[in-house]
Design brief:
Helix Hairpins; chaperone; alpha+beta
Length: 193
């Protein structure tokens, strides 16, 4: 049974592929092995579901993060475009909170620097060229991560389905085995009478 779960088939991130049990009798040699086998399948199924939930959470975070990076990048590109122009300031509306906006005049002189939130309440100041480069790299990395997470969710969805089918097949096999055992016991009792 352990060889069934030690398959070397994985996706590119190392998530193992779920085995498919074609014939339960070849897999469960002794009826006493059923509980152990069924529990292992249930455990693997719960691991796949946990990984799937984790990946879905990552996707949700990335989907909210990507527009923020895109907006910051657009603003930095706009400031770079206006830098050194005929006007010394760029008038913009910017978001303070979800529903609160205000107006600002941004100095777009030759020595333009921007502050970028790095997370964990940390803001770093960058020259505009470095900020554009950094945000472009972050945007590309976030889009790549989103693509990978979506691939993993699809892979996990297939494996969850496979494991659910395996569990159903094992359960149905056990029900049929128990019914056959009852019929056999009843038949021997009828012969004794």
């Amino acid at each position: 049974m352990d060889t069934l779960f030690n398959s070397s088939e994985t996706n590119p991130r190392g998530i193992p592929k779920a085995p498919f049990v074609e014939n339960v009798e070849d897999f469960v040699k002794e009826p006493s092995d059923f509980e152990l086998c069924f529990n292992k399948f249930q455990e693997r199924l719960s691991k796949y579901k946990y990984m799937q939930e984790s990946k879905l959470s990552t996707i949700s975070q990335l989907k909210s993060k990507i527009p923020d990076i895109e907006n910051a990048l657009k603003m930095c590109k706009l400031m770079k475009l206006k830098q050194g122009g005929e006007t010394e300031s760029l008038k913009v509306n910017y978001q303070l909170d979800e529903t609160l906006y205000t107006k600002a005049a941004i100095d777009v002189s030759e020595d333009l620097k921007v502050g970028l939130w790095m997370g964990a309440d940390v803001m770093l100041e960058y020259p505009i060229d470095e900020a554009v480069e950094l945000l472009s790299e972050k945007l590309e990395a976030a889009k790549d991560s989103l693509k990978i997470a979506n691939e993993d969710v699809e892979f996990l969805r297939e494996n969850v389905t496979t494991m659910e089918v395996n569990c159903a097949r094992l359960y149905n096999w056990d029900v049929e085995r128990r019914q056959a055992l009852k019929v056999a016991q009843k038949g021997t009792e009828d012969l004794k009478i």
